[in-house]
Write a structure and sequence with these properties.
This protein has 332 residues and is an alpha+beta fold. The protein is built from 10 helices and 13 strands. Helix 2 packs parallel to helix 3. Bound molecules: adenosine-5'-diphosphate and magnesium ion. The site of adenosine-5'-diphosphate has 14 residues, from helix 1, strand 4 and strand 5.
Length: 332
């Protein structure tokens, strides 16, 4: 335990963020000891991932309140687990705290995480708290699970597969644009930016198929499609007219909407490929579960390139995420 400027009593702080109620039977030791102890389920593999959000790089206080910072930091991780086809189970939080964040604001961060965690049956089992003279840093680590040998890798795309996307894309970037530059508000788009919904259910549905290559959309459709194409050593052709766009984003015009979809990121939807003969079944299962899924392109023989087909022309897409707060920087 180290003295932290904005946290007056660390014991009291940890008590406040500790989940109330009984632990799940698989958590043998939760918060309060040196480390958590979990008993693995039989016939399951463990999925582990971590993601960091830095103030003024990944968010600003102007566009995100503390609750939303927590919600989104956890969402990014639950989304990574979903993109492997798994379900999140536990999370740990490392907080690097500057003096201008109050204890109440830190507790709000945990409220945001807890509300999302409850929707995904996921429990806080530990973390660490230190002070800094720099910006706030929130690092979330999630452990999830999946039936043994069922994980969905980005390297499994094969020529002849179809490419699909869940939900709609570009909404988060549109929401951020509104927060930064527009006078008129749009609750739907702003919500997509501040409180994104990781696609756990879609990932689980996909994990029941024999072969699916899958990525979550954290950096924009172009970048995620390139990751699948490179990992699988194939080319991908996306059809511009098929990209799933919300009616709210189309209010900004189709060209702008497509740019946000391709390069905006933080939608936390899923992009993947499936053998053509499985497409009808996949669509049926998604309709039955009321999850939107759209066919957007095809996989071809190739060397890791992604092309966008617009009318009858093909353009090669390049990775180009960007940092919205510092012009030109990559937003990793
Ligand atoms: P130690 O000195 O053993 O690392 P700490 O005082 O750092 O103990 O932590 C005590 C307990 O509180 C541990 O279970 C730890 O996982 C948990 N904890 C500490 N900080 C946080 C945090 N920011 N979020 C969640 N759990 C935390
Ligand atoms: Mg510690």
């Amino acid at each position: 335990v180290v003295f932290i400027m904005s946290i007056h009593d660390e014991f009291e702080f940890i008590k406040q963020i500790t989940p109330k109620g009984r632990l799940k039977p698989d958590i043998l030791v939760g918060i309060g000891d040196d480390a958590a102890v979990i008993r693995p389920f039989e016939q399951t593999d463990i999925i582990a991932c971590t993601d960091t959000m830095v103030e003024d790089v990944h968010f600003t206080r102007k566009t995100m309140n503390p609750y939303q910072v927590g919600y989104k930091a956890l969402a990014a991780n639950i989304s990574d687990v979903a993109a492997m086809g798994g379900k999140s189970s536990y999370y740990l939080v490392s907080l690097v705290v500057p003096s201008n964040w109050s204890q109440q604001e830190l507790i709000e961060i945990y409220k945001g995480m807890e509300d999302l965690a409850n929707q995904h049956d996921t429990v806080l089992i530990g973390g660490d708290t230190v002070s800094t003279k720099g910006p706030l840093v929130v690092t979330v680590t999630v452990l999830g699970r999946i039936k043994s040998n069922k994980n969905l890798k980005r390297s499994d795309a094969v020529p002849g597969d179809l490419v699909f996307i869940t939900g709609t894309v570009g909404d988060s970037a549109a929401g951020l644009h509104i927060l930064l530059y527009e006078k008129d508000s749009n609750t739907y788009l702003i919500n997509r930016h501040q409180l994104p919904s990781p696609q756990t259910e879609a990932g689980l549905l996909l994990s029941s198929f024999d072969r699916v290559a899958l990525n979550d959309i954290s950096d924009g459709v172009a970048s995620e499609a390139i990751e699948i194409a490179e990992a699988s050593n194939v080319d991908i052709e996306l059809n511009e007219s098929m990209l799933p766009l919300s009616k709210d984003i189309l209010a900004f015009g189709r060209d702008q909407a497509i740019k946000w979809a391709l390069y905006g990121g933080e939608d936390y939807q899923l992009i993947g490929t499936v053998p053509t003969e499985n497409w009808d079944e996949l669509e049926r299962v998604f309709i039955k579960n009321r999850i939107r899924v759209t066919r957007v392109g095809e996989v071809h023989k190739g060397t890791g390139k992604v092309y966008l087909k617009k009318e009858e022309s093909l353009f090669e897409l390049k990775k180009q995420g960007y940092n919205h707060f510092k012009n030109g920087d990559r937003n990793e």
